From TrEMBL:
Its main location: membrane. It is found in: Membrane. Coiled coil: none annotated. It comes from the Bacteria. The lineage of its organism: Bacteria, Pseudomonadati, Pseudomonadota, Alphaproteobacteria, Hyphomicrobiales. One of its GO terms (cellular component) is membrane. PANTHER family: NAPA-TYPE SODIUM/HYDROGEN ANTIPORTER, SODIUM ION_PROTON EXCHANGER (EUROFUNG). This is Cation:proton antiporter. GO terms for molecular function: antiporter activity. The chain crosses the membrane at residues 51-71, 83-102, 114-133, 145-164, 170-187, 208-232, 252-269, 276-294, 314-335, 347-367. The keyword Transport applies. It is a multi-pass membrane protein. InterPro entries: Cation/H_exchanger_TM, Na+/solute_symporter_sf.
């Protein structure tokens, strides 16, 4: 029988190690956790117990929700064309490129090629949001444009997975109806509830949000979907309430980044089998190259068309080239439903994890722009207005 306390100590020890390394090398802790998880999984072995899977899954849900709360409706309306165009092309370009390569070059059957295309069409909300929170870019207008484009990109992935492989039955209809009602009611009920309970040590606001996320996540699982899918939409629905009360998302980020998300990122790294990776390294590299190349061909010209600076355009394109949560979910969906085999799953998941690492490291190291937070920009504009 496993000692749950010692296992917990190992996981949190690895999370602490990743935090220290990330500070020393000035790299996003999310990326370091993936690397540490991969090394640990292939050396000492990490036990993926039910409680570990729950914490990792809840971490992905909460992180996706928090990313949704960063979508400022005002910024989205102001930059609707750029966010929508970048998001749609960010999905379509790699989906078509990978799909056709898998089907007509290496000869995968059509359903397997579709799983490959969907898995590598994504961007990583989890990685992008984690990086932006660390750097403060989530408080900038450019950061909010990128997060909105990420949402649209992943919405295309979810739509494709749903249309191609979903079972259209009573449970799916019930899940859709309950989600729609929740999205309509939450912006009206949540602010009233938050005002009534106030900021308490017992954190009723956090418990209420967790209840909604877990409830919708449970319905999604019953409907044959994924628990993380409705979290982004709930985050967007509650974005105005969170923008009005910055202390609430701050407290939830502490919970997420301290306990939950390390399990998610460490687990993602531990799923990579180094032996299987070495045997299929060439194909993994090709899939990763196709994903990044098609993202660049599709997105970079759009950033120029919408008058992004050269550095901002490269940074946006690189972050849109990432992938993790929905890419892993799509590959796991294919494995669980016997559409792809274990070897194909390893190839796709490793390419997905590679896309979380390579573009983000390049973006942070060489193309990180100097953004001015929206609050600072407003503050610096006031003296000029007063002088005028």
């Amino acid at each position: 029988m496993e000692n749950v306390w010692l296992v917990s100590a190992v996981w949190l020890g690895l999370a602490l190690l990743a935090s220290v390394i990330s500070i020393r090398v000035a790299m996003s802790v999310a990326l370091v956790e993936i690397i540490v998880g991969g090394v640990a999984g292939n050396t000492i072995g990490l036990h993926l117990t039910e409680w570990v899977n729950f914490l990792a899954g809840f971490g992905a849900i909460l992180l996706t929700f928090l990313a949704g709360t960063e979508i400022d409706p005002t910024v989205v309306r102001k930059h609707f064309k750029s966010s929508m165009s970048i998001g749609v092309v960010g999905f379509l370009a790699p989906y078509v490129g990978v799909l056709f390569y898998a089907r007509y070059v290496i000869g995968w059957p059509w359903p397997q090629a579709q799983i490959a295309g969907i898995s590598l069409s994504t961007t990583s909300v989890a990685v992008v949001y984690a990086v932006m929170v660390e750097t403060g870019f989530n408080k900038t207008e450019m950061g909010k444009i990128i997060l909105a484009a990420c949402f649209i990109n992943d919405l295309g992935t979810v739509f494709a997975l749903g249309v191609v492989f979903a079972h259209f039955d009573y449970w799916l209809a019930l899940f859709g109806a309950v989600t729609a009602v929740a999205l309509w009611m939450l912006p009206r009920f949540a602010p009233w509830f938050f005002a009534r309970v106030g900021h308490r040590v017992s954190e009723p606001e956090t418990k209420f949000i967790s209840l909604v996320l877990l409830g919708l996540g449970g319905l999604a699982s019953v409907a044959g979907s994924e628990a993380v899918l409705p979290a982004y939409l709930v985050g967007m629905a509650l974005a105005p309430a969170f923008l009005a009360d910055p202390e609430l998302p701050h407290r939830m980020r502490i919970i997420a980044f301290t306990i939950l998300t390390p399990f998610y990122f460490l687990k993602a790294g531990s799923l990579v089998d180094f032996h299987a990776v070495l045997s299929a390294a060439g194909l993994i590299a090709v899939f990763l190259a196709i994903k990044m190349a098609t993202k660049f061909v599709g997105i970079l010209p759009l950033t120029k068309a919408f008058r992004f600076g050269a550095r901002e355009g490269m940074y946006t394109t690189l972050l849109m080239s990432t992938g993790l949560t929905f890419g892993t979910i799509s590959a796991l969906f294919g494995l669980t439903n016997h559409i792809i085999d274990q070897q194909q799953y390893t190839i796709l998941v490793t390419a997905v994890i590679g896309s979380a690492l390579v573009p983000t490291i390049i973006a942070q190291r060489w193309f990180q722009p100097s953004f001015k937070p929206i609050e600072d920009a407003a503050r610096s504009a006031r003296p000029a207005e007063e002088e005028a």
